[in-house]
Amino acid sequence: MSQSLPDPEIDLLSPMLTQEGDVWTASFRGLTLRTALQPIYSISHKRTIGYEALIRAFDNDRCPVPPLQLFRLPESEGENLLLDRLCRYLHMRNYCDIQDQLNWLFLNVSPKVVTAGGLASSFFGQLLNKTGLPPHRVVIEIVEQPTDDPAKLRDTVAYYRELGCLTAIDDFGAGHSNFERIWNLSPDIVKLDRELLWRASEEPRARQILNGMVSLLHQSGCLVLLEGVETRDQAMIAIDAGVDFVQGFYFRKPALELDSFTREPIDLDELLSEYKRYKKVTHDPAQQVLDFFDGPFRRATELLEEDASMAGACTELLDHPTVSRCYLVDHNGIQIDDTVVSDTALRNRDPRFRPLESTASADWFRQEYLRQALAYPNTLHVTSPYLCVTGAYMCVTLSRAYSYHGRMRVLCCDILADNHA
Where does this protein have coiled-coil stretches (predicted)? Predict the structure, then answer.
């Protein structure tokens, strides 16, 4: 088979499709290809917002053939492109015939296939016209893997966007992925690799990384989809991470019965109610920290107002096993004197970070906890967990501003993030 497909491509592919009742199938190398759909849900909307189309192959005995085996069959770049286009044609024909006339259809395409077809090719435009599917209902998924021609990939993604389609990066967070492709392609949606979710369910630090990655992607202007959700705990992690959309076996498996999804809507209310209870009642560490330390912190600032020493004023705070250090900052964010360190922190000091220990005259004005305290004096504030620059450990910081001889000062206290009161 030649490396490029002759025009018009639609005329070449149409005879390979067959309608069986309300469903279309396709033939390739003696196999029957069928469309399976898996719903994608918006957590906030509490409903389906799209479906990922997946190919399913069957032999002459109607036995399933693994997708990996199917995609090993092409013997040339041209045939590989043919199979990719045949799958997309099949999916779009089937999707146009189901009752849902609102939501997105997610179509997978690898970077190698994307860059194999030239921009001069009008195949996908023909396909949109042939099927009547509006381009704004199509999401082109680019699998997150290396490509030999990133410039051509960028141009091709721009071509789909010019057609009116949305674009998505699939499997982001896999071993070779990075934010360079996000910046180069500016996708509308980023699908996070399921490995990130698995790690987040096993390791607390990985969960913090997941939350931070979602936040950074949002700041980059991307909606975020977390795939591979298989358990209730993983669903709660996805909700807590702030992702926009979820997909996975926990909600629905891919199905060949294409009209079944519109008959069986998902109920996310119970899951969201559980999450609210989880955050507000049982597992709200920020509120627990504020409630526990409000009294000791107030007493410490009162003593400082009376010219007590830092060591004397903060004795009650430093005696708590989770407290790492206390320090005082002026209204310009400059630290006054050196830090008062707890016995617990002294015993657990890591000598590798000794260059960071002394913070006399350090400038903390960039820190949100300082600006919050100065904006709302006499109120105790607490941060989310973050990496403390003085020792490279995870902590939360408590801060409270008070008046001292007509100037504002801020008492700050670092608490080990993994040992909340």
Answer: none
